[in-house]
TrEMBL record:
It comes from the Bacteria. InterPro entries: Glyas_Bleomycin-R_OHBP_Dase, Glyoxalase-like_dom, VOC_core. PROSITE patterns: VOC. This is VOC family protein. Residues 7-147 form the VOC domain. It comes from Gilliamella apicola. Pfam families: Glyoxalase_3.
Amino acid sequence: MTTLIPQIDHVVITVSDQLDEANAQYQKLGFTTTPRGHHSLGTSNNLAIFTTTYLELLGFEPKNADKVDKSWRFADGLTGLVFKTKNANELYQHLVNNGIKVEGEGPRSFFRPVELNDGTKPEARFRTVRLDPAYTPNGQIFFCDQLTPELVWRKEWQAHPNGVININQVIIEAQNPHASIKLLENTFPSAKIIDIDGGVRLKADDKYIDYLTPSATERLFGASLSKANNDQDRKVALGLTTKSLAQTQQALEKGNIRFNLQNDKLIVPASETYGVVLIFSQL
């Protein structure tokens, strides 16, 4: 396999049994969300689709609570960082050969029907390779092989009232950023990693994955942060690129969403988003 290049596919925001409420809240935040999808694994979701990435609100409907694999259950918040792959089998073997612990004996396959505007419900199919959950106690890092991308990145779902067009940053709080980023450094040996104020950064195309100390995240976000449940690494903030901050602000005000303007960015506290600070910046 050629050298792995880090490319963000999507992020996962866990909302447990609050999918209806979370979906309504994200619409108030100015996102256009997809119709509810139901995975073959028991979970359900609503998505906000961007240019090359998407945001997934992942939870379960009460009737399916006992069907959901407990290893996929986490406290609410930004729990999943997902990278792209086009060959799950080859990727799995590559990671194993390079000493990266992965879950299971091979890629995991699943599907969900997708409700389209024409009334049809074709099946979106995926194969995933998840890094050993022991690496990330407060969430997960995995790869997704989108077998039917045409059922995900659809134009009718990519126009958002808040103007968002893509993800640009994921911020992970870590007691020791240099130690924690080793997982990604070992997974992507050719990736560019640099020191930044308060931590360390990995560049994934035109996007950033930052590991910052708790003091650094406190300095940046203060009371906007969610409360930590433990001292393990946790994903605390998500950066989003918008066509227009004025458009974003208008959408947030319309939804009665609290926000702060900070260094030419709009910051929405975790209390408004099911546990993740949202950072809107203009293209």
